[in-house]
Automatic annotation (TrEMBL):
<dbReference type="GO" id="GO:0046316">
    <property type="term" value="F:gluconokinase activity"/>
</dbReference>
<dbReference type="InterPro" id="IPR027417">
    <property type="entry name" value="P-loop_NTPase"/>
</dbReference>
<keyword id="KW-0808">Transferase</keyword>
<dbReference type="GO" id="GO:0005524">
    <property type="term" value="F:ATP binding"/>
</dbReference>
<comment type="similarity">
    <text>Belongs to the gluconokinase GntK/GntV family.</text>
</comment>
<keyword id="KW-0547">Nucleotide-binding</keyword>
<keyword id="KW-0418">Kinase</keyword>
<comment type="pathway">
    <text>Carbohydrate acid metabolism; D-gluconate degradation.</text>
</comment>
<keyword id="KW-0067">ATP-binding</keyword>
<dbReference type="InterPro" id="IPR006001">
    <property type="entry name" value="Therm_gnt_kin"/>
</dbReference>
<dbReference type="GO" id="GO:0005975">
    <property type="term" value="P:carbohydrate metabolic process"/>
</dbReference>
<dbReference type="GO" id="GO:0005737">
    <property type="term" value="C:cytoplasm"/>
</dbReference>
<protein>
    <recommendedName>
        <fullName>Gluconokinase</fullName>
        <ecNumber>2.7.1.12</ecNumber>
    </recommendedName>
</protein>
Length: 158
């Protein structure tokens, strides 16, 4: 697509990486500042009219709201005030699949700070996207070319 790509894992603070390396799951207090950094990146790219893809485990609805609206998403549930930055338009792609497929892929990863043992905590935290969120669900049981084609089709359809 020629879009800018970011891997959210590159933006975890050292403390988060150390926790995960030790097999300790992250909590909301660990994730919210990280998600705010990611929101700021997306906001910057949006301001410069740069289409962007962010690979990110936005496991909870609240996390996805932070990506869309920044810290204000957790500070208040009030409607947006005039003059505030409008919410970002984001299509979330929920890659869905059986735990054994995901565990197999995690097991093949080398040099990553998140051990496969934390997969259970991610499933425990997961709140799959639902209406009115802007999302598609793509099965990880498909081939990589099929997954990419499905995501590209959804993006191009707007």
């Amino acid at each position: 697509l020629g879009w800018k790509f970011y891997d959210a894992d590159d933006y975890h603070p050292l403390e988060n990486k150390k926790k995960m390396e030790e097999g300790i799951p992250l909590n909301d207090e660990d994730r919210i500042p990280w998600l705010c950094i990611l929101h700021d990146i997306l906001r910057r790219e949006d301001t410069s009219r740069q289409d962007t893809i962010l690979a990110c485990s936005a496991l909870k609805k609240m996390y996805r709201r932070v990506l869309i609206s920044g810290a204000s998403a957790i500070e208040t549930n009030q409607p947006q005030q005039p003059g505030e930055n409008p919410a970002l338009k984001i299509l979330f792609v929920h890659l869905d699949g059986p735990k054994d497929i995901i565990a197999g892929r995690l097991g093949k990863r080398r040099g990553h700070f998140m051990p496969p043992e934390l997969l259970r905590s991610q499933f425990d935290t997961l709140e799959p996207p639902s209406a009115p969120e802007n999302f598609i669900t793509v099965s990880l049981e498909k081939s990589l070319p099929e997954i990419v084609l499905e995501i590209e089709s959804a993006i191009l359809q707007g």
